[in-house]
Design a protein that fits this description.
- With about 200 residues, the chain is mostly helical.
- It contains nine helices and no strands.
- Helix 1 packs across helix 2, helix 4 packs antiparallel against helix 5 and helix 4 runs parallel beside helix 7.
- The chain is elongated, with a radius of gyration of 19 Å.
């Protein structure tokens, strides 16, 4: 029987299962005994793999606390850059967020646990900040396109900073399974999108 286009093969499915098992084991250990106190050999033992395998999937220990961040950033950046003419950055953001919430349905407890782990560790907060800076730059570039100005101009940078601030505040209570989450995001993006339209006009 032919494999459908885009369907991962056996090797890729096994790779994804191993990666998920490592990330899950790390999350449980980080929550129970702290990020700094947890070692790679401990994570390897909990996931039933070798320490070398853990490092192969996650070269830096901090990545274990943010296993999906690179993929999420790449997806968001692509969605913003490749949006069709006539679609605003705010609308593209809304569409991407709706998809992200759908992908994370049923994972409320995992997300809350990750937030708790990051909040307790200064190194993880610093690591997260680097992702936030990259995300803000990507959003600023998208707003700049709407405004017809350079991404370094004040207006798109202010709008991007406001967007991240809103998402940070919402993230404290983010729950993909809560219907009110997307409604709150809609209100935030309506506010920000209105500001962009006012600046453009």
């Amino acid at each position: 029987m032919a494999i459908e286009a885009g369907e991962p093969g056996l090797r890729e499915r096994k790779r994804r299962r191993t990666r998920a098992a490592i990330a899950r084991a790390a999350l449980e250990l980080f929550d129970r005994q702290g990020f700094s106190e947890t070692t790679i050999p401990q994570i390897a033992a909990a996931a039933d793999v070798s320490p070398r395998t853990v490092s192969g999937y996650f070269p830096h220990k901090e990545e274990l606390a943010f296993p999906d961040s690179e993929e999420a950033f790449a997806s968001l950046d692509r969605r913003l850059r490749e949006r069709p003419d006539g679609e605003s950055a705010a609308d593209a953001l809304r569409g991407w967020i709706e998809g992200w919430l759908g992908e994370h349905a049923g994972r409320d407890e995992e997300l809350r646990t990750r937030r708790r782990i990051v909040a307790r560790d200064e190194a993880l907060r610093a690591y997260e900040h680097r992702f936030l800076v990259r995300t803000q730059d990507a959003i600023a570039a998208a707003f700049a396109r709407d405004l017809g100005v350079a991404p370094t101009e004040l207006e798109p940078r202010m709008a991007a900073a406001a967007t991240l601030t809103v998402f940070f505040l919402l993230g404290e209570e983010l729950a993909p399974d809560d219907r009110d989450t997307l409604a709150a995001i809609d209100r935030a993006l309506l506010f920000i999108g209105g500001g962009i339209r006012a600046l453009r006009d």
